[in-house]
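FAQ: What does a ligand-bound record look like?

Like this one, built around flavin mononucleotide:
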Amino acid sequence: MKITAFNGSPRGRSSNTGIMVSKFLQGAENTGAETEQIFLSEKKIGNCMGCFKCWISTPGKCVIRDDITNLLEKVITSDVIVMATPLYVDGVTGILKNFMDRMLPLMDPHFEKDENGECRHVKRYEKYPKVMVVSNCGMPGQEHFQTLKLHFRRMARNFHSEVVAEIYLDSGEMLKSPVLLLKPLIAEYKRNLSRAGVQFVNDGAISRKTSEKLAKPLIPARMYIREANKYWDRELAKLKETSPEEHK
Ligand SMILES: Cc1cc2nc3c(=O)[nH]c(=O)nc-3n(C[C@H](O)[C@H](O)[C@H](O)COP(=O)(O)O)c2cc1C
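The answer part, i.e. the structure of the complex:
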């Protein structure tokens, strides 16, 4: 099984998203999968220009000369693509959205109805990879992922595919917390991520038990909100110390 993860965090290698994907892929790789995490923030990916030349003049190829040709090759030769993103304004980051827009050459322009009578584009390739989603967000509560979940379900449908696994961590900034008391909880969360990778390769899905553990925040929401507000107060106090004139 070839699994390629596309990480859309602007924080790249130091992102919470990166930690989540790395641990998941570690489990998958130890179970025999071929894995790769691509940090899209390190790639040159311009905006889709909406010219439709990838459908008319150069069928299947984008006319913008940047990293997309190589990245689309990785998409189409994978069994599973992991769309990985921190939650930005209830959705994907601009980096990941740019990448998703640039996936247009993978489809044929013609329309057809799917098995539910909904319109989509015709396939250009015989086989499309399955989709997995990994995300974390800054606020507490799984409800924040509502629009993201729906977006990827619709996106996968358009790509003649389906979402086969999802990992959503709210209160995600805790993953890198330096607080000693949290270290064992963070380590346990990471072990569960690797366990999910093992299960995914062995069974094609993450078990319900592991999924539930991965959707559970590391600390209760009440505590997280209190600590987050203290953090922002400390940071703002530092700013007042360094430039008191501006904060009169
Ligand atoms: C521009 C921007 C928009 C954000 N929007 C949301 C949001 O809608 N909901 C939320 O819970 N967190 C939001 N966040 C917080 C991030 O999701 C959070 O910091 C996350 O842990 C970053 O993950 P990363 O390290 O993988 O980039 C936002 C952050 C930024 C910078």
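Follow-up question: can I read anything off the structure? Yes, for example: Helices lie at 16-30, 68-76, 94-101, 146-158, 183-203, 208-214, 221-242.
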